[in-house]
Design goal:
The protein is mostly beta strands. It has helices at residues 101-111, 130-133, 152-164, 229-235; strands at 2-8, 17-18, 21-25, 28-29, 35-38, 44-45, 57-61, 64-69, 72-77, 84-89, 92-98, 116-119, 147-151, 179-182, 192-197, 200-209, 247-255, 258-261, 266-271. It starts with a strand and ends in a 9-residue tail after the last strand.
Length: 280
Amino acid sequence: MRLAALSIYPMKSARGIALAESPIDAMGLAGDRRWMLTDPEGQFITQRELPALARLSVLPTDDGLLLVMDGQDLVVSVPDPQRRSDVVIWKSTVRAAVAEDAANAALSDWLGRPVRLVHFDAQARRMASAEWAGPDSPVAFGDGYQVLVTTTGSLAALNADMAAHGEAPVGMDRFRPNIVLEHDVAWAEDGWTAIMVGDVELRLVKPCARCIMTTQDQQTGSREGANPMPAMGRIRMSADRRVPGPLFGWNAVPVGAGTLTLGDPVRVLGERAPWSIKRR
């Protein structure tokens, strides 16, 4: 088993960036989901309600971001740490830094609705669920955890079911993972407690329940093409009420720090009874 793909998503719900290597620490991959859009009241915005975010490319610079969308570009500086506001992401409230008014006005114009861009800087604080991740587990603007892990074998199994039902296949980008492992056995990750990727340990703490974002083309935002939700409903419905819905991938928590590099060997450190899936 080896590390087959590595990605970060500098702005939550915007396009990802494939990497050859990345530093990783307790908060996850460097630069992953450190920026986010909110509405004027501070409620977070994702592709779930704004599919156009799939067309927004976000490139980190030395002092901020370069944003590109539909032939337009915008340079955004790291906000003044004194420009702060409370923002809400799921059940968390984060005191984040707010981008300059000109940047927010430009993004609002691009996206056709009022938005604000916020930054998870050194002063911001948020913790993953202690129930799953353990105490004092820092996370930025990810949905809930630091790293999302998927495997090639599981995607192949999902696409095989789709093909058997006359449905078009989907790529791994639909699931927006940070780490993709080359592994032939479908759903083997359901029975892993932890893995070692190179010299970095990751604890697999909670399966990832999937939503409408998996139905969206990750270049256009369109929901008109291939849709993996029916297949996940057929073969990946959770039977455990703690995490209801269709599952694909596992949320993981880094232990320590290091550097991940494509091709790194991966080994399983511990096993458990596989997560319970409804059978049809």
